[in-house]
Structure formats: structure tokens, C-alpha cells
């Protein structure tokens, strides 16, 4: 019984310490980073995607799908993309590492590998940048058919 109580108390302390450490920054963005400190809503960059969802249709299992999400910075300051992540390891985004000036366009290249997938697919690509809000989500959808 003492071992159970001790284990429970230790677990509570560990969880409390973890919550206390992260409570000041629920977004996961370092408050000292340029994305968090240099964003001024009046002059912030604005990312405008040509399409928010791309439907790749039907593909056979094992095929790779490539698509470029083209976007324009319609804001008043340079757009800096700090990260782009997909909802699944089967989808790999590549984003521009250099700032996109106001009025300029660029693209996020996405590759979806349909190996070991079947049926309807909806992959989310979350783009983190120095915009307000900091994250924008685009979708890659379609159907994978078995051979």
C-alpha cells in the first residue's frame, strides 16, 4: 500500500512540474523568437494561399502525389515560415527558408506517399509563420485504391 501511495504522489509531483513549466507558453512558441515578438497586427505579413484544399483524386496504393501550395504575402512585412508539419509521416512538406517579401509569391511543396494507405485520405499541413494567427492549415485529400 505504501508503494502505491508513494508512486501516486511521485506521479502527481511530476505532472505538476510539467504543467508549471509549460503554463507560461501554451502555444509552444518561444517568446524570444522573432515570430512571436516582431508581429504587429497592423504591419504583419499575411499568407494568402491560392487553394486551401487540393483533391488529388484517385491513386493506386504505392504511388506518390506531389503538389505545390502556392501563396502570396499580402501583408506589409516579410513573411517568415518557421515550420510546416503534416498530420502523418506519409506526407512531407518543404517550405521556403528565406523571407517572402510583401507582394511576392512562393510555394510549399508537399509529397504524399500512398504506400500502406487505402481509402479516403485527408492530410493536414500546418504552416507556422510570423502571421496572425501564427498557424494556417491546408488540406491534401483524395482516395487511395488497392491494387
Task: Describe it.
With about 150 residues, the chain is of the alpha+beta class. Helix content is about 15%, strand content about 40%. The protein contains two helices and eight strands. It has helices at about 1-20, 35, and strands at about 45-50, 55-60, 65-75, 80-85, 90-95, 105-115, 120-130, 135-145. Strands 1-3-6-5 form a four-stranded antiparallel beta sheet, with no helix packed on it. The longest helix is centred in the first third of the chain and has 21 residues, at about 1-20. It is elongated and about 50 Å long.
Give the SSE map:
Blueprint: H1 2-22, H2 34-37, E1 47-49, E2 53-60, E3 64-73, E4 81-86, E5 91-94, E6 105-113, E7 119-129, E8 135-145
Parallel strand pairs: 2-8
Antiparallel strand pairs: 1-3, 3-6, 4-7, 5-6, 7-8
**Main sheet: strands, sense, barrel:** 4 strands, antiparallel
Helix content estimate: 10-25%
Proportion in β-strands: 35-45%
Content-based structural category:
alpha+beta
**Spatial strand sequence of the major β-sheet:** 1-3-6-5
Overall 3D shape: elongated
